[in-house]
Structures are given as structure tokens and as C-alpha cells.
């Protein structure tokens, strides 16, 4: 049975849990960039590299935008590295201005992400050993939270300038990449990554931390390193 077809439910979404699992694709999906057709106003985007071959499971990165963003912002974090690394990039937008747990609880965003993952897993061969969740700013905070809660699904977390993490649970041991600018005025490094990274390390996670001189952004060399680190795992 194709595990990718498990359907999200309200109980699991409220607990921050994703039910979708990579399995045997039952349909053929196109390469290149396209919408998933799951929502008329705020749909998810999927980029499948031109060299994708159904017989070779590909790494997949679920990438999340910052506050006030759209799917394209999440996609842009890693799309330029997709063809060279063979990585599929899935970018869902939040249901509201930012991600649900930042409003106080998990729910609609987890349900939509689960739907987007299930849709993708049913159409593409995804390597279960290279499955990442990542994001920038609020998206990075959410990626840490969701990645730790679903560490039995995600093998890697890519957190670019995170502000905090509020996992509902701790499952599995995903490897974690964190970057932050020393001149970040939006999410100051001292009260964000300088606290988050030691907490992750103390909890037993394998963390690769990259600090750079700069503001609230993702430098291209940082994004490139994160993409290479994840896809080569």
C-alpha cells in the first residue's frame, strides 16, 4: 500500500503530527515548476528537477516562507540548487499571515502541509533518507518546531535565521543546519540562535551552525552549503 496516501486529520494536525510517508508513486507527475491544485487562493508550489528519474528516489526539501510571505518565497530559498543536486522542492504557503503555531496552536498549516506531502509522495519517488523541512525567519522557527515533532519523518532541518522553536513532541534525531546573521535586527542573534543552538545540542541533536556577518537574510553561499549538506547525506 502506498503510505503517501494517508489522509491528514484534525487530531493529528492539532498535535503537530504529519501522517504522509514516502512510498511507491502511483501516478506520474511532471518535472519543472507547477502548482499542486490544492487551494485556489494560496496553493503550494512544487519544483521537480529536470533530471528527475522515477527509478531513482530523489531528496525532497519542504521549504517554508517567513511572515507575510507566499509559496514563492519558500521555493526561492533552494530552487536554484535543485537541478544540480537532484532535489525536489515543495513550498506550501501558510493559511494565514504566518504559521499556525505562532498564533498559539498547530492545526490548519499542518493539515495543508500533510496534504501537499501526500500529493507529492503519490507522484514522485522520494528518498526517505533525505527528507528535509526548512525555512527562513518565521518559516525557520516553524521548520524547527515541525521537524523536531516529526523527526521520524524528516531526516534534516534547515533553519535560516530562526526566532524560536516550540515542538509539540520530540521524535527521531534529524540533523539540523542553522544559520544566522550577526547584524540581524529583526530576530537578533543573541536572543535567537545563540539560545536555540545550545538547546538543540544539549538535547542531543547533531547541529551544523553557520554564523555570518550580515542582516536578516540568507546569503547565497549559506543556502548553497545547506543544499549540498542535505542532499549529500
Q: Strand-and-helix sequence, N→C?
A: HEEEHHEHEHEEHEH
Structural class: alpha/beta
CATH topology: Rossmann fold
Q: What is the number of domains?
A: 1
CATH hierarchy, class: Alpha Beta
N-to-C CA distance: 27 Å
Counted beta strands? 8
Just name the CATH architecture. Answer: 3-Layer(aba) Sandwich
Description:
By secondary structure, this protein is an alpha/beta fold. The chain has a single domain, classed as Rossmann fold. 27% of the residues lie in helices and 21% in strands. It is built from seven helices and eight strands. Strands 1-2-4-3-5-6-7-8 form an eight-stranded mixed β-sheet, sandwiched between helices. It is globular, with a radius of gyration of 16 Å. The protein starts with 9 loop residues before the first helix and ends with a helix. Mean pLDDT is 95; it is low at 1-6.
Fold topology:
Layout lengths: L9 H5 L17 E4 L9 E4 L9 E7 L6 H6 L5 H4 L2 E4 L16 H14 L4 E11 L1 H12 L6 E5 L14 E7 L11 H10 L4 E6 L7 H12 L2
Parallel strand pairs: 3-4, 3-5, 5-6, 6-7, 7-8
Antiparallel strand pairs: 1-2, 2-4
Quick synopsis:
The chain is an alpha/beta fold and 233 residues long. The chain has 7 helices and 8 strands. The protein has a single domain (3-231), classed as Rossmann fold (3-Layer(aba) Sandwich).
Distinctive features:
alpha/beta; 233 residues; disordered N terminus
Amino acid at each position: 500500500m502506498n503510505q503517501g496516501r494517508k489522509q491528514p486529520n484534525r487530531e493529528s494536525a492539532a498535535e503537530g503530527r504529519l501522517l504522509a510517508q514516502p512510498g511507491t508513486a502511483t501516478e506520474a507527475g511532471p518535472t519543472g515548476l507547477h502548482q499542486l491544485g490544492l487551494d485556489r487562493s494560496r496553493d503550494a508550489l512544487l519544483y521537480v528537477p529536470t533530471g528527475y528519474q522515477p527509478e531513482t528516489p530523489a531528496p525532497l526539501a519542504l521549504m517554508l516562507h517567513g511572515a507575510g510571505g507566499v509559496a514563492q518565497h519558500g521555493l526561492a530559498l533552494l530552487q536554484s540548487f535543485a537541478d544540480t543536486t537532484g532535489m525536489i522542492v515543495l513550498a506550501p504557503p501558510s493559511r494565514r499571515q504566518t504559521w499556525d503555531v505562532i498564533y498559539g496552536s498547530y492545526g490548519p498549516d499542518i493539515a495543508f502541509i500533510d496534504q501537499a506531502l501526500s500529493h507529492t509522495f503519490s507522484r514522485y519517488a522520494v528518498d526517505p533518507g533525505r527528507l528535509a523541512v526548512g525555512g527562513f525567519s518565521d518559516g525557520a522557527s516553524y521548520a524547527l518546531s515541525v521537524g523536531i515533532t516529526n523527526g521520524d519523518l524528516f531526516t534534516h532541518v534547515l533553519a535560516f535565521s530562526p526566532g524560536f522553536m516550540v515542538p509539540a513532541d520530540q521524535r527521531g534525531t534529524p540533523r539540523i543546519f542553522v544559520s544566522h546573521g550577526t547584524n540581524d535586527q529583526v530576530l537578533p542573534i543573541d536572543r535567537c540562535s545563540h539560545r536555540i543552538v545550545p538547546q538543540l545540542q544539549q538535547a542531543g541533536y547533531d547541529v551544523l551552525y553557520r554564523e555570518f556577518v550580515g542582516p536578516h537574510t540568507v546569503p547565497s553561499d549559506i543556502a548553497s552549503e545547506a543544499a549540498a549538506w542535505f542532499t549529500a547525506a
